[in-house]
Amino acid sequence: LLYEMLTGRCPFIADGAIATAMTRLTQDPVDPREYAAMPQKVAALVLELLERTPERRPDSAVGVATALAEFAGRSHSGDSAVTLLGTPTSTGAWPSATPTTARPPGNTTANRTTSTGAGPNSTFVSIAPDDRTLAVLPFRVRGPKEHAHLAESLAEDLVDVLTATRGIRVTASGAAARYEGQSVDPREAGRELGADAIVDGTVRIMGDRLRISARLVDVATGEQLWVDRYEEPLDGVPELQESTAQRIAERLRLELELLSARHQVPQAAIELLLEARQRSTVPTLGDDSLSLAMEVLDQALAIAPDFGLAMATHAEYAARRSFVPSRGNDLAVANRAHDSVARALEKAPHIALTHLAAGRLAVSDGRFGDAASELGLALSMAPTLAAAHGYLGMLQCEAGRADEGERHIVLARMLDPSIPVGAALARQRALAGDLDAFHAMVAEMRVTPSASRFMIESLEMRVAGWFGDQATVRRCNPSAFVSPEHDFHRFMVAQRAGLLREGSANDVLESMDAAVATGMGPRLEAFIRQLAIEALVPLGDLDRALEQLRTAVEMPVFVDTDWMEHCPALDPLRDFADPQRDLADPRRDLTDFRSLTGRVRRRADSIWRVNT
């Protein structure tokens, strides 16, 4: 832990939990001074703590505290513990930590690095500056008493999930146990437990279904901040309890973020944040809902310049917006996203949404190692952050870890059904050849408000092209889901014509060039080249299709191994020999499809090797 606090990285990392454990048992860690500047004595102490032989390690925590005291600006005396974070207040609470960019040894308020990575110029950030204390009261049972264990297990699961969430302090289950079976005033219980907010609820069995109601109450005001009901089949109760606890925990996390904000910023700024969230719910191509939401957040930040949650939300919207083709102004959109994410990392690093935004932007830039790190950090801070699970799952599906990716996507949908991740899962089913599952998912997306029409129609047209389903391709009309005034419209029309074998390769390539000339990011450019390849192959222009594939593979942002390995549209390219290649050139193998696929696979594998 001390190693990670000082350097921003774990001392032992390998490909998987078992490999990591074996590394811990068989290898010495890298000297921490390789990653961050620190006194030699501190580095030596850290390495001594990590000795594989127990006898070589310090024999007590007090001894370690004494050794660190000189660097923390404290002294050790008697049997009292050395304080590295400061002294307790008169109430026994620790003072709030504040973000800092300082990097000297002994700055133990720092416990994570931002996306700048570890090293002499690393930026260290703190834990949430305004943690809220939450107490979960025993859930009450409505109905037969033999089901009391369900209520008890649900409350325990909820405490476990919430305890793992950064920025929330949860009272132990035992402290609230005395209220079991009682009807109590939440404000009174909250004051007795020293909590800022109280969670309670009921569990009821109704035939073959389990109904759970939960609510969140602000102890200071007695206001009911949130209430919801969950009803599921009674089959598989253990899994049901766990998933319900996770869903409740995610809703509570969001409400507690707002509760913290209400204690820090004017109500007008809170209302603007809620308005921005409402405006951003259905992003579509050509629709500027995300841009309009960011304008509303700008108003909130004008009222409350230090409103961290508004900064993090702004960064998330800006990162999402940067991947959607604009109307001739992609470079400005990308620059705005970088500025917004940089601001959030500097001023709101304690909010998990900040690191989700940084992960999204890193993917757009092709910095996949940073993306995996940022998404992992977001989930370590908020294990129930549905959008982070969904986005990490999408990245894993694309970059060679489909099984893990699908698990994250399924979890994201369970935590928040409005998360628009269905397209990524549907694409995986299509690449696996399971068209029945693909069509079922498309039908589900059509009735999901958060799924954009562009996402649905373009994916359906694309997959129909993969399998030669001309009738479906013909039924998909780009003018119905892309405005004719949008720069992307011409390209989508050319793509559809290519899939129908009715257009020309020149039209596809000219419209592609016009689209990428707007200054879009490399990630989006690589995606457009993929679509162009899929349109060139049916037109029989395999030479230029392979040329575009080489161009895409040369881009560091391109990691779509599943598409390279399984997309049926690429079958004609798999055995295609470029007639222009020099067979005497020792590098000729770098131009064939198999070699290109291997390069993409190695690039994708390197992401997870470093960031597992």
Q: Note poorly predicted spans.
A: 74-129, 585-590
Quaternary state of the chains: single chain
Mean pLDDT: 78
Annotation, overall tally of beta strands: 8
H/I helix tally: 28
Residue share in β-strands: 5-15%
Percent of residues in helices comes to 40-55%
Helix/strand-derived class? alpha/beta
Q: Largest beta sheet, briefly? A: 6 strands, mixed
Distance between the termini: 17 Å
Report Rg. 27 Å
Shape: globular
Brief descriptors of the model:
alpha/beta, six-stranded mixed β-sheet, globular, 8 strands, two-stranded antiparallel sheet, 612 residues
Explain what you see:
The radius of gyration is 27 Å and the shape is globular. The longest helix is centred in the middle third of the chain and has 26 residues. The protein is 55% helix and 7% strand. Helix 15 packs antiparallel against helix 16 and helix 25 runs parallel beside helix 28. It starts with a helix and ends with a helix. About 10% of the residues have low confidence. With 612 residues, it is an alpha/beta fold. The chain contains 28 helices and eight strands. Strands 3, 4, 5, 6, 7 and 8 form a six-stranded mixed beta sheet that branches. The chain has a two-stranded antiparallel sheet with strand order 1-2. Strand 6 and strand 7 form a beta hairpin.
